[in-house]
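JOB MANIFEST
job_type = single_chain_structure
chain_count = 1
residues = 236
[input]
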Amino acid sequence: MIRNATRSGTGKAREVLNRIAEMIAENGIGVGDRLPPETELAKALGVGRSTVREALQAWQSLGIVTRNKGAGTVLRAPITTSSLHLPIAITLEAQSLQRMLEVRRPLEADAVRLATLRATDRQRHEIMTSCYKLMDIWRSGQDWRQADHAFHATIHEATGNPLYKQLVDQLQGAFHSVYEAPLGEPMLGTDTIPLHIEMAEAICAGDPDRAAELMHKITDLTGRDVEKIIGDGADA
């Protein structure tokens, strides 16, 4: 039997997941272990079963749990109190973001390489146009996230394979369904924006190796930003 949570519920998926994470750590539930039934979690948290179900579905999309009608909900990623400085919720969020970046890194690099080799003149023009728009928005200090998404979408289209966009959208959608502002930083990855124009130019110049190298740098820089935030939290 899982111990009762001490905080009142808010009905928001992120808050519910944070509290479930705390309960998992407190009760020593490990990878491969089954979580309590939704009804028990809902009672312990003081929320409706549908709220718990929605929250766990978000975790399933992030690979933190698997859910099967017969087997129940099984934990697939560790949730512990290993850090004395960071809340469990922040640690879990950072780990989820790092796992997403690990999957996106080769996926995005392959997409950039294929786009470089396959893009038509029209698609190259669209890639550069969307990149200029991204740069303008970034330089003006506005929220550049939508423009960044549109820029990468032009690259995915140029691959000729719609699965690239579909897979990346699924990864981003799963993460941002819970974490709207990753680690409290809505503009996480701002330092990578100047590299986007170099990558767009490499694509249009027909240099797949250079384009893929720059895509790797972009994802690596974002990963280092995550590590820095974690480190700053640990030092606080």
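[summary]
The longest helix spans residues 88-118.
Strands lie at 65-68, 72-75.
exit_status = 0
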